[in-house]
Amino acid sequence: MRVLSLMMVLGLLAPTPGGLHLEVAGDGATGVTVRAFSADGRPAEMGVRLVLTATAEGGRTVGPIQLDPAGEGRGFYSSGPVLSPGRWTVVVTAPAPDSVRAEAVVEARPAQSPPSPAARAAPPPPPEPSSRLWLWGLAALAVAAGFTAVSVVRLRRS
């Protein structure tokens, strides 16, 4: 009887439908990211099962794919590279007890390649001549201070 009572109490404390919210977006390349959070804005706890399906122009489809939590933080999910370049309508769902559905249009782009080692090793360009203007101002200030000091000394002697 105690077990049944405990199960009933835990059932009342479980999230209700609509308690989970999803934000779906592209990752800047050919993947999808999802942020799962509760109604009060806190990241969703581990164990939320999310499923992604996507449809592109021309009828191409991807999925269903189960999304796993990503290492970027709690409530963050990532598909990895699953879309080909183009415009996709992405739907992410969570089955019961969460029962939530989110949809977004994502523009998948080819991944950019990293810069070549030669481009990364290039030395920075020399500073522009105008960036040394402050040195000339400092030198002029030093000369003016020197003339002022000499003038003060001469005035005191006379």
Defining traits:
single chain, about 160 residues, alpha+beta, Immunoglobulin-like, seven-stranded antiparallel beta sheet
Question: Could you please describe the fold and organization of this structure?
Answer:
- This protein is α+β, with helices and mostly antiparallel strands.
- The protein has a domain at 13-108: Sandwich (Immunoglobulin-like).
- It contains three helices and seven strands.
- The chain has a seven-stranded antiparallel sheet with strand order 1-2-5-4-3-6-7, with no helix packed on it.
- The longest helix is centred in the last third of the chain and has 25 residues, at 133-157.
- It is elongated and about 100 Å long.
- Residues 1-18 have low confidence and may be disordered.
Helix content: 25-40%
Q: What is the H level of CATH, i.e. the homologous superfamily of the domain at 13-108?
A: Immunoglobulins
Radius of gyration: 32 Å
The tally of strands reads: 7
CATH topology annotation of the domain at 13-108: Immunoglobulin-like
Number of helices: 3
Question: Could you name the CATH class of the domain at 13-108?
Answer: Mainly Beta
Q: Which sheet architecture does the biggest sheet show?
A: 7 strands, antiparallel
User: Overall pLDDT, averaged?
Assistant: 76
Structural class: alpha+beta
Give the second-level CATH assignment, the architecture of the domain at 13-108: Sandwich
Extract low-pLDDT stretches: 1-18
Strand content: 25-35%
The strand line-up of the biggest sheet is 1-2-5-4-3-6-7
Rough outline: elongated
Distance between the termini: 110 Å
N-to-C series of helices and strands: HEEEEEEEHH
